[in-house]
Amino acid sequence: MKRIALVLIVLFTVLAPAFAQTAPTYFVRPKAFKGSILHLDLICDGDRLGVLKNGGFVVAEMTAGKHTCQIGDSNLVAIVVDPGGSTFHVTTGMTQKSMILGLRTLGPSFTITKQ
Q1: Domains of the chain as residue ranges with CATH
Q2: Position 47 pLDDT exceeds 90
Q3: From residue 53, how far is each of 8, 13, 17, 71, 92 by CA, in Å?
Q4: Which class for 63: exposed (0-12), middle (13-18), buried (19 or more C-beta within 10 A)?
Q5: Mean pLDDT value across the chain
């Protein structure tokens, strides 16, 4: 009896992650003039999910809970995916990155908001 219980515990521990529920998660980038030429890599939990083009979207199967995502080489952003799936809007903008010889250099900025 103890062996059966031990085997069941080991099987459950090994196989449980394979049966974790996933839900479709949408990352939508509305069409905008600012940053429109950029094609952005979407990376979540270290995995490249796809490329976000201006006016495009990426759909990924993700487990419910907390994840860390980033757009291109931007800072990591924490998101929470609902059990039934979630939709996030990715907006682009331009911000001042530095001053070189008195001239401003601009670079892209990104925000991820839950809808």
Answers
A1: 21-114 (2.60.40)
A2: yes
A3: 47, 40, 32, 11, 11
A4: middle
A5: 77
Q: Answer whether 110's CB lies under 8 Å from 92's CB.
A: yes
pTM over 0.90? The answer is no
Both tokens assigned to 49 = 């999910």
57: nearest Cα among 84, 23, 24: 24
Number of H helices, E strands in the chain: 1, 8
The predicted structure's pLDDT at residue 104: 66
Q: Extract the tokens encoding 63.
A: 């487990």
Is the per-residue pLDDT at 77 higher than 80? yes
Reference 58, options 29, 38, 86, 23; nearest CA is 29
Q: 39, 51 in Cβ contact below 8 A? A: yes
